[in-house]
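Notebook entry, structure prediction.
Reason for the run: the old model in the group folder had no record of what sequence produced it. Starting over properly, with the input documented here first.
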Amino acid sequence: CGEAQDAVFFRSVVIVLLCCCCFFTDCAYMWRSIKLAIRITKYKKCKPFYSLLDHFLDGAKRHPDKVFVHFEGRQCTYEEVDKQSAKVARALQAEAKLQEGDVVAIFLPNNPSYMWTFLGLAKLGCPAALLNTNIRSKSLLHCFSCCGAKVLITSPELLSAVEEVLPTLKEQDISVFILADSCSVPGIHPLSGKIKKASDEPLSKELRANVTIRSTALYIYTSGTTGLPKAAVVTHERVWAACLFQAAVGVTTDDIFYINLPLYHSAGFLIGMAGSIERGNTMVLKKKFSASQFWDDCRKYNVTVMQYIGETLRYLCNSPKKDTDKQHKVRLAMGNGVRTDIWTEFLNRFGDIQMRELYGATEGNIGFINYTNKIGAVGRINPLHKFFFPHTLIKFDVEKEEPIRNSEGLCVKAARGEIGLLVGKVTKRSPFVGYAANKTQTEKKRLRDVMKKGDLYFNTGDLMLIDSENFVYFMDRVGDTFRWKGENVATSEVGDILTTANSILEANVYGVKVEGHEGRIGMAAVTLKEGEDFDCADAYKQVVNYLPAYARPRFIRIQPCLEVTGTFKMKKVKLVEEGFNPANISDPLYFLDTDKKTYVPLTEKIYNAIMSREIKL
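New structure, fully documented this time:
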């Protein structure tokens, strides 16, 4: 009895200590957040408007010789980037006749030229549309046109993708420039020579005199239920809010920040690059993530802060172990989407690194930061966060794919510890701007009459859970989007491409879990045209030609008919649960074999090789 009482006592002490620890951590975080909120308020009231560009220019004056970015063995200082961006601005001003407000599409790989091109456009007061370098053909044209851009800037690496859509761009009188000294393709103008000859003198602020905190700064693309990427409108206010994530988690001007994520994504661009500009620190930019080079880069450049998505940490944990695994200066990692087991394995193997898991969406009005090192949580709620970003979890019918409403037509709040749909209240402090040239999809993300008649919330499309200690956990996505390789995949876009194959009549696309992998990999249940057999080679050709690698369905399931709901929506829940194990499915199954460049029958042998990771996905 005495031992039991002692156990209860010690358990109580531990709980009290944990609560005290979280209390002080909460207080420290809230104090830092208050200071950042005051700073944003100050920027809002500044006349003329004080933008991230102005902050960069001030930094270039304060520390002109400080390294701005390391890239593939070379480095550029703040002063050099300032001057190069001025040259880019002047060259574009002369060649493209750019004026304040003109939208320019950036279709470039990770490279310092991406950074000074953006800064050059900002000096002219021109919003930039950040095009995903994986998209092609129809998707590329859609992304370009929906933001209203009149100029496209690309590089030699992406020339073939631009050539494919060039006839349409010419018809629309679009100016296409390539960052090269020459180009043999008629209609694509080399810009590098013009940049070299341009003056690097500062440009007048009058060129961007009408830019305000509410003006559009960027268009960043996100997948959705339409089947084509949507251009999320990112205002200067949102740029400031996103780039302060680094400050919120304790990154300083002395840190060296490693960016291995694509700059066309909000994580790499806003949290990574823009955040480093706000902090005035030094960046190490990677063209693309490399697990084998990651820690060597960190040691070479004395990296102190790294950025990640769940997949990158998994790749690092799967890389061969070395005696030098803990020999680095990385003190903090920030990102999103890491599994609990990978999180634990990463810390055990690579040392005591402070993990700052984030949750948010490019276009969303609600985000979380796990500032406590609680493994598995994507954030923590405190009173200040709830005040600035009011939100709630509501009950959601997964089968019907809609919120559950009561007799009064209002949504039902999920209980503490219950999974619910996260919705963020739309207010002046937490607005939802929406998507460019897409009122329909903007309206679909708006949820009305949630807690009371007439209110308005942003529908994140994510199922979350908030536990008794106010920690937030991501559970799953809903609707017609799944996430693979750190990218959102729109199921209807994939379905549209599959049905262009000669033998396929209808396609129901969804994501399935694969043990040991983040997110869900693409799979499709299809029906065939009458009298047709599945044409493996033709289906492979269609998905490879028109879809980026992460969106290609790796598994095909042939069905006699596709199940639909009463409102003719395709049913996916049962298909997702059944997965792709041929031992449990009587329908013919196929696997996309990248070595054989075709779809092949999915056998038990192939299935086991996938599950044992002999076949890499």
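Summary: The chain has 19 helices and 30 strands.
The old model has been moved to the deprecated folder.
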